[in-house]
Amino acid sequence: MNEFFRLKKFLKYQWVSKTKYYLHSPFVYQFYLNVLEGEMDEQLKAIRSLRNELGKSNAAIKIEDFGTGNSRQATIAKLETKVAVTEKYGTMLYYLVKYFHPKNILELGTSIGISSAYLALANPSARIFTLEGSQALADIAKTNHLQLGIKNVEIVTGDFAQTLPSQIQLQGQFDLILFDGNHTKSTTLNYFNQCLITAGENSIFIFDDIYWSEEMQEAWLEIKKHPQITLTFDLYQMGICFFKKEKLSKEDFVLRY
């Protein structure tokens, strides 16, 4: 069911998405040039090399899931290929951080630490706090970060019901938040509403898997309509929200990526 739904949405995305040649907003055009058209560099090559190594590992780990209360087993290779952010969208995250220079970053859903690696290497002076429910995954992520020489990521383990409010209270404001910890409408909206208190004029919220299911699309549609959100980009895999009320008008763009 979900695969058929995603296929339909992808075909529609391909039909309606715009390239840079159809963009009239200077802000959106510069985003396209600087974020979506970034090329491979040495930092990205280092992540690619690690990913190639992880993709060959048949080591299995037991993963506890606070959301369902269940546990499951998965190989490192499967986690790298099926769960971790793809290289394409990881590269987008990397150049987004390079372009906007967020200093305080929150990630919901560490997994094996690949997406946080893209965020961290893009701006070594940024502070990145990433939440993970599974201690086993957090341990792998820490090892991967060490291999890449990353020192600006703090992994916070435990149930998001406790760790998210705690980080919001401790940090106060985030320049960028990546939501990738749950794929249900109610929980996604719950995390979004909790995090709104941390958003400033220059904050960016990024939502992964906005077309994972019908309810995730419903969550994305509600988020886009929120009065605090000014500008949104739909990249099919990810949705990006901006809060720049003084500089941007209320608009939604579907960008070809």
Offer a few descriptive terms.
257 residues; Rossmann fold
What layout of secondary structure does this protein have?
Layout: H1 2-16, H2 26-36, H3 42-54, E1 60-64, E2 71-75, H4 76-83, H5 87-100, E3 104-108, H6 114-122, E4 127-132, H7 135-147, E5 153-157, H8 160-171, E6 176-179, H9 185-195, E7 204-208, H10 214-225, E8 231-234, E9 238-242, E10 251-254
Known CATH architecture? 3-Layer(aba) Sandwich
State the share of residues found in helices, binned by percent: 40-55%
Query: So what's the oligomer here?
Result: single chain
Q: Biggest β-sheet: count, sense, barrel?
A: 8 strands, mixed
Secondary-structure element order, N to C: HHHEEHHEHEHEHEHEHEEE
Q: Looking at this structure, what is the CATH superfamily?
A: Vaccinia Virus protein VP39
Percent of residues in beta strands: 15-25%
CATH fold naming:
Rossmann fold
Strand order of the largest sheet: 5-4-3-6-7-9-8-10
* Whole-number count of domains: 1
- Separation of the first and last Cα atoms: 25 Å
Q: Name the CATH class.
A: Alpha Beta
Which structural class is indicated by helix and strand composition? Answer: alpha/beta
What is the 3D form?
globular
What integer is the average pLDDT? 95
Low-confidence runs (pLDDT<50, min 5 residues)? Answer: none
Computed CA radius of gyration, to the nearest angstrom: 17 Å
Number-wise, the strands total: 10
**Helix segment count?**
10
